[in-house]
Amino acid sequence: MLTVTTVNVNGLRAAAKKGFVPWLAETAADVLCLQEVRAETAQLPAEVREPEGWHVVHAPAEAKGRAGVSLYTRREPDAVRVGFGSTEFDASGRYVEADLPGVTVASLYLPSGEVGTERQDEKERFLKEFLPYLTGLRARAAADGREVLVCGDWNIAHQEADLKNWKANQKKSGFLPEERAWLTEVLSGTSGGYVDVVRALHPDTDGPYSWWSYRGRAFDNDAGWRIDYHMATSGLASRATKAFVERAESYDTRWSDHAPVTVAYEG
């Protein structure tokens, strides 16, 4: 069994003070993918920088206090790669991948964007570069008899079932038609060829949501977005047995505005 968890920690130093550390001590995950770490490696407290029992790779952003992704694995990876061959984005703390026996696992923090701003332009450039990489990664892995799992905060809700208030968000970044079409390409057999594992296991439900705004009563009303995904090649996706969101019991016990998304895969 391989259990993988992904979570946007919304600043790892802050999360460590709010409950991430005891959560980490109790998790049954074999692999943990973190996004929005927002710290240089040396700035992280030891208990999250290099916790006992884990092999850790941190890929901070060149721009201080932004982005940053990390991978925690119980087993030492055979290889680790930061970035995806992009001149613009490889130093931006957006992507890191590791080779484990039979599978390449990656942590992704896709830009969030904001309509009408440079941030949305940046997001569009990222999407344009990243899809060909995903396609190539799948092809290379298949040639080596390996599977691929790209986990993380993709910052796009794919379908109406993936966010509570979809009607009010049709012109906002994260639910734009062109973004949703891009994600469809990721899931297309002729392009990306990946499977949305959580949706495959929960095909007829709204959510399960993984992000709730800190504003208003979004968390209490479960007015969330499902933007944290496990995107797997078909062989690995077919071995997924259960998927769930580790939603906090109450607003005041959250250590991030996202919740961990966990999937168990048969070995």
From TrEMBL:
Cofactors named for this entry: Mg(2+); Mn(2+)
Assigned protein family: Belongs to the DNA repair enzymes AP/ExoA family.
Amino acids binding Mg(2+): N8, E36, D153, N155, D257, H258
Cofactor comment: Probably binds two magnesium or manganese ions per subunit.
List of catalytic residues: Y109, D153 (proton donor/acceptor), H258 (proton acceptor)
Gene Ontology process terms (BP): DNA repair
Protein name: Exodeoxyribonuclease III
Keyword Hydrolase belongs to the record: yes
Site (Interaction with DNA substrate): H258
Keyword list, A-Z: Hydrolase, Magnesium, Manganese, Metal-binding
Keyword Hydrolase tagged: yes
Site positions per UniProt: Important for catalytic activity: D228
Residues at the site labelled Transition state stabilizer: N155
The protein's Enzyme Commission number: 3.1.11.2
Sequence ranges assigned to domain Endonuclease/exonuclease/phosphatase in this UniProt record: 6-258
Organism: Streptomyces benahoarensis
One annotated GO molecular function: metal ion binding
